[in-house]
Amino acid sequence: MNEHLRTALDLAASRIPVLPLRAGKVPFRNCRRCADNACGGRPNMKNPGPCACPGPCHAWAAATTDPDVITSGPWRRAWLQAEAVAYHPGGAGLTVVDLDDADAIAWARENLPTTQVVSTTRGEHWLYRGAMQSANAVRPGVDIKSTMAYTRWLGFGTGAMAYLPDAVRTLVVSRPATARPAQPAVTATAPAGSGECPHRTPAYLERGIAMAEQRITEARSQVHATVYRTFLAVLSAHGRCGCLTDAHVERLFAAAQTKGESPRHCTDAWTNARTRLGL
């Protein structure tokens, strides 16, 4: 058993989904069977679906914790060619803030909560508990790797892992504009609320928002309906006591837009959910 395969099995035993990386630190290419989305889904990274391919040829979507898969013939051959081990942070309930240079590290030390740190070739990975949508270039030298992304395994690092803070989540919402066509502004706000707050700790609300983001992100069909039902559930649990903030709404909208929903549909779904609950 080679070193990469041994590492992969150790990580899988800790419920961290793994995959091999070939030369150049990139995933294995799609096989002929799966080329051009012929297998029905997982080569399409924006809408991963089931695939019976026995090999690790679907990037992050191939990541697994199943030791029988990891040690199967196609995977074992891949480990023999692998140059590194990667993992799917979102699948492990984690978010990696990838800091590429000294300036990015200095910014993180000034603006983000202390957490577990893993040294990289050029900078550092800051690991937080909790998953969110991934995004590149949220600010100079900073990428977010969580759901629908992979990153190299470089060891456990140092320090105690903190829970994913809003300061990281809002980086995706407020990242610099790109050349994509302008979208209508999001105008929905959190309900003011006037009832007694039943939430004893902020962590209760944070878990609820994180679970809602994950439910939207993992939707593989009926995305419109999933977004509406998720908004309805969040408002039903948190809409009357005033705990929700505009930042929470932006996080939910960002998750929905990552799945292809328009700002207009997000606003309509939010408004309809509030109307149904009488908020």
Task: Describe this structure as you would to a colleague.
Helix 6 (202-217) packs antiparallel against helix 7 (223-238) and helix 7 (223-238) crosses helix 9 (263-277). Residues 42-48 and 177-186 have low confidence and may be disordered. The longest helix is centred in the C-terminal third of the chain and has 16 residues, at 202-217. The radius of gyration is 20 Å and the shape is globular. Helices cover 37% and strands 14% of the residues. The chain starts with a helix and ends with a helix. The strands form two sheets. Strands 4, 5, 6, 7, 8 and 10 form a six-stranded mixed β-sheet that branches. Strands 2-1-3-9 form a four-stranded antiparallel β-sheet. A hairpin with a 4-residue loop joins strand 5 (116-119) and strand 6. The chain contains nine helices and ten strands. The chain has 279 residues and is an alpha+beta fold.
Taking the sheet with the most strands, its summary is: 6 strands, mixed
Q: Tell me how many strands there are.
A: 10
End-to-end Cα distance, whole Å, is 60 Å
Structural class based on helices, strands and sheet pairing: alpha+beta
Oligomer: single chain
